[in-house]
Automatic annotation (TrEMBL), chain A:
Component of the proteasome core, a large protease complex with broad specificity involved in protein degradation. This is Proteasome subunit beta. The gene is prcB. Its EC number is 3.4.25.1. GO terms for biological process: modification-dependent protein catabolic process; proteasomal protein catabolic process. The 20S proteasome core is composed of 14 alpha and 14 beta subunits that assemble into four stacked heptameric rings, resulting in a barrel-shaped structure. The two inner rings, each composed of seven catalytic beta subunits, are sandwiched by two outer rings, each composed of seven alpha subunits. The catalytic chamber with the active sites is on the inside of the barrel. Has a gated structure, the ends of the cylinder being occluded by the N-termini of the alpha-subunits. Is capped by the proteasome-associated ATPase, ARC. CDD domains: proteasome_protease_HslV. Belongs to the peptidase T1B family. Keywords: Autocatalytic cleavage, Cytoplasm, Hydrolase, Protease, Proteasome, Threonine protease, Zymogen. PROSITE patterns: PROTEASOME_BETA_2 (PS51476). GO terms for cellular component: cytoplasm; proteasome core complex, beta-subunit complex. Pathway: Protein degradation; proteasomal Pup-dependent pathway. The lineage of its organism: Bacteria, Bacillati, Actinomycetota, Actinomycetes, Kitasatosporales.
UniProtKB/TrEMBL annotation, chain B:
This is Proteasome subunit alpha. InterPro entries: Ntn_hydrolases_N, Proteasome_alpha, Proteasome_alpha-type, Proteasome_asu_bac, Proteasome_sua/b. The formation of the proteasomal ATPase ARC-20S proteasome complex, likely via the docking of the C-termini of ARC into the intersubunit pockets in the alpha-rings, may trigger opening of the gate for substrate entry. Interconversion between the open-gate and close-gate conformations leads to a dynamic regulation of the 20S proteasome proteolysis activity. Component of the proteasome core, a large protease complex with broad specificity involved in protein degradation. The gene is prcA. The 20S proteasome core is composed of 14 alpha and 14 beta subunits that assemble into four stacked heptameric rings, resulting in a barrel-shaped structure. The two inner rings, each composed of seven catalytic beta subunits, are sandwiched by two outer rings, each composed of seven alpha subunits. The catalytic chamber with the active sites is on the inside of the barrel. Has a gated structure, the ends of the cylinder being occluded by the N-termini of the alpha-subunits. Is capped by the proteasome-associated ATPase, ARC.
Amino acid sequence: MEAKASGTGRLPAAFLTPGSSSFVDFLAAHDPGQLPGNRELPRVERAVEAPHGTTIVSAAYPGGVLLAGDRRATMGNVIAQRDIEKVFPADEHSAVGIAGTAGLAVEMVKLFQLELEHFEKVEGSQLSLEGKANRLSTMIRGNLGMAMQGLAVIPLFAGFDLDREKGRIFSYDVTGGRTEESGFAAVGSGSVFARGSLKKLYREDLTEEQAATVVLQALYDAADDDSATGGPDLTRRIYPIVVAITEDGFRRLAEDEVSGLAQAVYDGRLQLPDGPQAPLS
Amino acid sequence: MTTPFYVSPQQAMADRAEYARKGIARGRSVVVLQYADGIVFVAENPSRALHKVSEIYDRIAFAAVGKYNEFENLRIGGVRYADLRGYTYDREDVTARGLANVYAQTLGTIFSANTEKPYEVELIVAEVGPAPEDDQIYRLPHDGSIVDEHGSVAVGGSSDQIGSYMDQRHREGMSLGEALKLGADALGRDSNGGERTVTAEQLEVALLDRTRPQQRKFKRMTQRQVARLLEEQRGSAESGSEGAEPSSGDEGESEGDGAES
């Protein structure tokens, strides 16, 4: 940006032009090369090999919503990283978890966080939860060119709606299509198995701790059947990341909390390897 | 054909400075004081919606007096500058010194450009550090100069009286309540030597609180919090006791709030 400033070192005119409260719009006008979606990609024959993040799950409970992700990133058949973090705070009252191309996803999250913070600072108030979800939609759509070449980023967005006083979950497709989920949701390669697990275990009246156990069970089931999803790594003490968003804001569950719950899930699986059994009728 | 008047450069600059100073002096003042846990901004501002004090970045805040549209423009420019810099490099790389420099260049260029009217604003850019000695406060007058300030500083209408009142009474390691009361009392001085009591309803108060666990250290105080702190301080001053730290308990209460409350 220094190079962009005029010779005097004063703020360039674009900085002082009244208008949009969106950082992405400002960047598009002032320095479009920095926007992830604006990069030209060379044509390639096959999909580009880059680390991919896998499963993210979310569950709402009275008074809040949980978002959790496993810790594995894969590149083809190789485990690229064992302790990757794929769940991030978006702002004080929302969080975003990402599946897909890890490098692009982390950049998108960084830009999304900044977009929300920028709006809050310029306007002096937070965006509504719907507004945040829509901004994320636009950003995914901006990545469509890369997604077509195999570098897709699919987030799961969860937040506490201060107006409606409840936790809400939004899932996205690769074109930026947005769907509000009721109760629970999962994205990523292990999401099929996680969703099956959530279906059987989820109830609407869970406490925060029970909901945390449910998402850990779902991640365990995803790891059980999907090679790209990592289970709790008890030997290296690497556990899924679980975050809670309530009226009081974003909170990442401490490692002892998660390790205790993950250990309990693991101990249960020593008796019943396929996990808790739901009643037949 | 008319011959243009000759105006000496000295006279031209003096006129522009006079113009800017008069504009600034019309507005109410803002004071900024260091206290033990950070920096407190106290502004006399009857409006709840139009702020004189705002957040720029994690550790940096902005205060301004003068013409609203001009300083609002500079504020948004500063937020864009800081966010872009943090996005390009790292959050650590956004500093008050860098921002103050950009503001100074901007104000200076506008002040000496004959095609633009000088901005009628005076700014303060402050950054809270890990310890009180790392705090930085910069005052930016209308002409593009930068003044590095310590302890306490006032800008706006009667800034001379207010500033000297604070200079005599400010000391290091004040509690939040003490600093707030000093700021509020100082804002009550006017240039004719008059005095009035500024109430919590007339104040806009914000903090850069280094003890805040969040990355963003900026926090607005609600009117209720301000009123309670001022009452405690004014009460203890009357009873003659040196209320050493009646404020420490109150600060933690709104910890969970977002930066904007």
